[in-house]
């Protein structure tokens, strides 16, 4: 697999310095100590964007869970962004062509965890 080079390493460095904790710790028991913190791109893929509305800081266990559960994981990450005041639906839609309200609406029936469904319901209301 080809190496992923970040277009804006200075943004990632500043983000990592500002968020030196697992942002999912309210929902996740971070078991590794010292925590191995990782930056997760909510809207990932080959053309992922290094922007505050697309970044969350997670311990490796939470990062693994978010990656393994892409629907519930994205909802959780968007919720973290919402709580932080960085859930920018217009920026997400402009950069990715995906509007959070439409995406959440189309995925609600695929969400299997009740607590994530609750988060999705609130996000749906604030993103319309």
Quick description:
With 128 residues, the chain is mostly helical.
The coarse silhouette is globular
Strand content: 5-15%
Radius of gyration: 14 Å
Total domains, how many? 1
Biggest sheet architecture: 2 strands, antiparallel
Count of beta strands: 2
For the largest sheet, list the strands in their spatial order.
1-2
The percent of residues in helical segments reads: 40-55%
Helix count?
A: 6
Our measurement of the CA-to-CA distance between the termini, rounded to an integer number of angstroms, reads 38 Å
Topology as a string of helices (H) and strands (E): HEEHHHHH
Describe the structure.
There is one protein chain. The protein is mostly helical and 128 residues long. The chain has one domain (9-127). Helix content is 50%, strand content 8%. It contains six helices and two strands, in the order αββααααα. It has helices spanning 9-18, 60-68, 70-84, 89-96, 100-107, 114-127; strands at 37-41, 55-59. A two-stranded antiparallel ribbon has the order 1-2. Helix 2 (60-68) crosses helix 3 (70-84), helix 3 (70-84) crosses helix 6 and helix 5 packs antiparallel against helix 6 (114-127). The longest helix has 15 residues, at 70-84. It starts with 8 loop residues before the first helix and ends with a helix. The relative contact order is 0.14.
């Amino acid at each position: 697999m080809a190496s992923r080079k970040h277009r804006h390493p200075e943004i990632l460095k500043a983000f990592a310095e500002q968020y030196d904790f697992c942002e999912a710790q309210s929902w996740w028991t971070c078991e590794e100590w010292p925590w191995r913190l990782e930056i997760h791109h909510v809207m990932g893929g080959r053309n992922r964007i290094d922007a505050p509305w697309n970044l969350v800081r997670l311990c490796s266990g939470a990062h693994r869970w978010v990656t393994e559960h892409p629907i519930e994981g994205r909802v959780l990450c968007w919720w973290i962004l919402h709580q932080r005041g960085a859930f920018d639906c217009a920026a997400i839609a402009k950069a990715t062509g995906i509007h959070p309200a439409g995406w959440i609406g189309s995925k609600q029936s695929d969400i299997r965890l009740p607590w994530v469904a609750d988060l999705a319901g609130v996000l749906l209301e604030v993103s319309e």
